[in-house]
Amino acid sequence: MTQPPVPPQEPSVTPQPPIPPAAPAGPAGYGPPAYHPSTDPNAVPFGIDVGFKWAWSKLTSNAAGLILGGLVLLLASSIGAILAAVGAVMILSSGDVDPDGTLHPDFGSGAAITGFVLAVLGVIALLVASAYLSSAYTGGLLDIANGVPTTVGSFLRPRRLGTVFVLLMLQFLATMVGLLFFCVGAIVVGFFLMFSVLAVVDRGVGAVDGMKASVSIVRARLGDSFLLWLVVFALSAVLGIFAFPFVQLLTVYGYRRLANQPIAP
User: Fold this and answer.
1) Phi/psi at 96 (nearest 5 deg)?
2) C-alpha radius of gyration, the chain, whole number
3) In whole angstroms, what is the distance from residue 76 CA to residue 80 CA?
4) CA distance between the termini of the chain
């Protein structure tokens, strides 16, 4: 018996997943850029080596503002120091010297009075310039830490100048008290308050709260904070003014990471 013809069957087609869009090409068309967590300081624990890499990267990419802005501020600060030094010399040279070399300044002479006025004006100018330098330069550093593009002007614009001035006065008084304890107290004060200006400018808090914030960060990570402070002190002692932008960036890195706050890669 003849079988009826079988109609042709459509070939079965298995549904395929959609093709994802191509990833954007990297430089020179060599494929998408790879992600390396080690290049992100937020993806790894705090470390001096990570801080060095971050600080150097930010120094090279923001060199104009960091270096030129720092030089302008340091030169402005030196005016007060020069006035104070000239005033001190005028006071000391106003009197007579005994045959045994003992100096007897004449505080009632015109030279001594002029020197005293210059010395006082110089100290006031130095304090104001120091507050201006700290508030302006710290603001530029925090712009870098927040990923904000910087110019020379970013480091010359003061942020919370009055509060920073009060903070520096309180730190100065605390340091003077610390000097009474064989200078060890002054070192301890500088160590625990090393993040005070950063906290005031970054968080918008008062002078006392900024000091408390710095103490809190240091106490929570005492070992890491001491290592950071020691490295910053050593670089500043060996390289002097040449290390200023780098150690400031390194301190900003430590401030953000030791407080478990993000920092721009």
Assistant:
1) -115, 165
2) 30
3) 8
4) 83
